[in-house]
Amino acid sequence: MNDGDEIVFRNVAAASSKALVFLNSEGGDLKAGIEIGRAVRLRGFATATPPGTLCASACALTWLAGSPRFLQPESNIGFHAAYRVVDGKASESGVANALVGAYLNQLGLSETAIAYVTSAPPEGIAWLTADEAQSVGITYDAIDEDGPDPASEAGKTFPHDPMGAVTAFYSALAAADGETASALVVPEKRGKGPFNEASIHAFYGAMSQPLKLTGTALRGNDDVRVSYQYVTNDGRRCKGRADVQTTYVFGTTLVSRIKALDGC
Fold this sequence. Notes:
2 domains; ClpP/TepA; protease; peptidase activity
């Protein structure tokens, strides 16, 4: 896990209402692991480890956020105290461990579980066993290779639906809900230009009469022409049209481009 991975994850996660997050990492940036974990818990995603892999340190902190958590019998989850390197030697970081403790408390882990997660020294690692998990209260579901695949439920995709995606996007604009509108946009364009959450809220929230979608027409396989009207904060009545391009990605339909044809 690297610094900035949490931003990439949040952008991808915003496109999904349900997901199973597979984790395979020796660790890395503590902040990234915690912030990805917070995003996982906020959205109610499940976490799992693929067969024969390890998830340690920052990765294990992310795994703890899953609702529920899955663990393959051949996989390894490992914890150790947060540390900093001084003169080439790893030593525990009180500040970092305080942040880890606060995060684990937010996840609802018991004091016993928090102590276990942060107990191993920086140069060592505590590999979670079934007995230890039970004794400290870290619950998880073991994946039975002969049973149902948990990814089959969490990995379901949605039908290709340009009309539905565009209608939902403009409904979010009408409500001045920048976060929802941005979540309906392809990840690489979120937060930029007309897809910036704060800009959406500021512009559409200032209207004296909110935007109203007056017509939609499918043009080809992916494009939708929309008609709309609204009244600005200075009383101007505006009617406009736009061509909205969509893309099917991550198992759902997202807005990728808007070309205004006319309007105020």
